[in-house]
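1st attempt posting a full record on here, be nice pls
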Amino acid sequence: MSEAPKKKGGIRKRTLQREDDEDEPETLSLREQIQERQHQQQQRRREQALRAEVLAAGLKKLNAAQADGLSQRETNDLLDSYVREQVEEKGAGESHMEAFIKEQMQKRLGKDAEEAAASGTQLHPDDELYAVPSDLQGQSTKAQDPGAWATGIVEVALPVEYKMRNIEETEAAKRRLLHASRGTQDEMQSPTSGPALRRGIYPSGFGKLTALSAPPQTSDSYVADKMRDEWKAKKKKKRHV
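the predicted structure (as tokens):
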């Protein structure tokens, strides 16, 4: 009777140990699953891509540098400088575009240019702490055109009706200008604004005076000969004196 409880106690201890042994692989498998999930999430992250034109230009420079016999370090420096310039140019274009958009939005909202400039220059105190001084900001070696960013904007094709209406309005404006110019010329030519004169009220020979019928005193040759004779007479008087 005394040996029975001892056996029961030993059996209970063994069952508890077996349960602990069975729990250990479950915790390890859960940890492994978490690690695998984290590894998969890291693999899914995509790196920042580069533009095709930047890569193409970089390869061209790399091939040219290798043809010139430059070292690998020098070629890497060339590529780094080129990519840096591209990034600076892109930043300058985006700044011009943002300024243009802000200006147009302020015009639509009815704000004055002075108010917009004052609001644009004021910064939050927290932003002023992280602002980079102008002397430490990077500057591009190439001259920037403020309107160069607009070259990539796609033009919208206008309908044919709109083009025809513009052509008709342009032609009508040309006709109005020609009509106005002709009216001013007619006003300048007519001395008075009275009734039109008829040809019959003038004599038959009016306006038909020729050089032969004109008196000799009114011709150009007569006046020139007279001036020449006067000059000769004055010259002779000076000689005698």
